Amino acid sequence: MKEFTVPQKIKNKFMRDIYVNREYSWLLFNKRVLDQASDLTNPLLERCKFLSIFTSNLDEFFMVRVGSLYNESISEPQASENKTGLTAAKQLDGISEVVRRLYDVRSGCYSALRKELSKNGLRILRAGDLTPKQVEECRGIFNRHVLPLLSLMVLDAKHPLMQFENKRTYIFCQLEKDGRRMLGVVSVNPSLDRLYRLSGGEKKVRLIPLEELLRLFGKQAFTGYTVSDQLMLRVTRNADFDTQIDDSDVERDFPEIMKKKVESRAKMNVVRLEIDRAGSKLTDMLLKILRLNPKFCYVDERFFDYKFMFSLGGFLPAAKSASLKYPPFKGAVSAELAAASSLIDTVFRHDVFLSYPYDSMEPVVDLLEECSKDKRVSSIMITIYRLAHHSRIAELLCRASENGKQVTVVIELCARFDEENNMYFAGKLQEAGCTIIYGMENYKVHSKIISVVLKEGEELRYITHLGTGNYNESTSRQYTDLNIITSDRLIGEDAVAFFRNVSICNTDFTYRRLLVAPKTLKSGLMKYMDREIEKAKKGQEGYILAKMNSLTDKAIIEKLAEASRAGVKVELIVRGICCLLPGLPGKTENIRIVSIVGRFLEHSRVYSFGRGKERVMYISSADLMTRNTDKRVEIAAPVLDEGIADKIDDFLQTMLSDNVKARKLCPDGEYRRVETLGASLDAQAHFLQK
Known about the structure:
The protein contains 20 helices and 29 strands. It is of the alpha/beta class. 37% of the residues lie in helices and 22% in strands. The longest helix is centred in the first third of the chain and has 32 residues, at 44-75. Strands 16, 20, 21, 22, 23, 25, 26, 27, 28 and 29 form a ten-stranded mixed β-sheet that branches.
């Protein structure tokens, strides 16, 4: 498989002093995802899934980040980002160079997986592999199952060039008829199967991909024409639309505004063209039509997306398929919670800690169900950012409202690519009588909080759920997230005040326990960093331990560098983007950064300062990105129970000891394997065993 190498000239462009460019760092993260597709510690079918995840990640990167840079290159061509000083145009140039190399690595990775699949009884054929008999069988499959679902168009004066839809596959053809030359377009229906099974093959399953059928027989769709050239293509469109609203929108229905904005994605400019072969004159024509720079045209001779890699197990016998996947598991429910007659009363006795996916989300769902029926419960308030498509959480909120509880739902309609799902649930919840709040002015509400207010006689009591991840039953089985359910009165009162402030669009409020962005979260965390810096200056031990998805906030990066210079030991677990270079002498030499990409997506955020009795720890919905700290409504909640804080610290220390999935960020910007000292430790596998 081809090695991924970025020329030093390009690396230097993306790094300056202690900083790494955000987009370059993200591309390195996605390369770590792709690495899992060739990591032999993962079962074969799981490696196939990682290849698909890498590709879908890259699709979103082009739609959102490249789209945003494209917009900026037009609106503010001289503006530069605040860490490496690159303009949008220079970032786009560098991105195109790096992505082209990632395509090469992906191609080699797929070839290796295809060979290994064949050894395990599943052969994915190309047109050149087919026998004459198989060609005829494939022709029959094409005529029966594919051709009826193709949409054709011949482009002429009456039929101008069609609008290529985002991420949809097309075949672009050069046609000739009666001495005339014209263009034809085949639109491939996305409902078509991606793989078709051929007959025979008792010992080995033989599959022909849809793309190969189209290459072989697609031209036959143009009856009466001669097809002199054909090219398979897919375009990626900019999806970075403006979600800001102003006073002129007050009298309009916000869901309708968002619906129109979402629909506008289909017509936004093209930021990437993918084709299945180089050298065709049709490519030049397409680039001209799409007004796209050739550097954003990429060749993949096989596929443009690899979603079919998720379905391969279905073609194998069940036992064989199971042997090529991770062993199944189900999140645990503690004996105490499983046996509890009342989860409300359990939380009144002590805080409850859940770590997804190792712990099940069921106790949170069960708590909501109990609250929907318990006569003591007066109100339930919740923030929603992303819901499962079949959400029990939403069902229980509707039931609670129908049972007479006051239910308030802050639902974020600007959650990218979940806008339509959230609009659907907002309608359902409103129909059930819930009070719906669509975010907070021009701040996205990304907080993860449930506030339950109970009335016992004349006394009000509170139960608050605080988490690092969404109220989504599906992702709770795939993402690692931390949750605390507490009856602490001050947190409960803060939670009620939080929802009150969101409802009146007030961000200028200081809470007693919670740190809430955009006002107090960043300053609150930096206050504890300053505390550790002052300790180190006095010759005492200073320690900062944090885990997050991304680190881009310049002020926080500079504060971490200051802590390093003062002698504070800083240990960071950063899964994705990291704009800070560690280990630079005299600058960041006391900072260590590792990234873990494994079976589960590391999603929890933890910020811990000091050790022993002086330790202060928060779990949070926020990454240390400017968008989170300054431009969103986020919450960091203190971990008050020392036993829970010890458990979280143990989680983090185990991850820092990982020498299987962990990659260490080095001073030169490269991510390298952690040295194996003693026994191998895969942190996620360790937590599963526990």
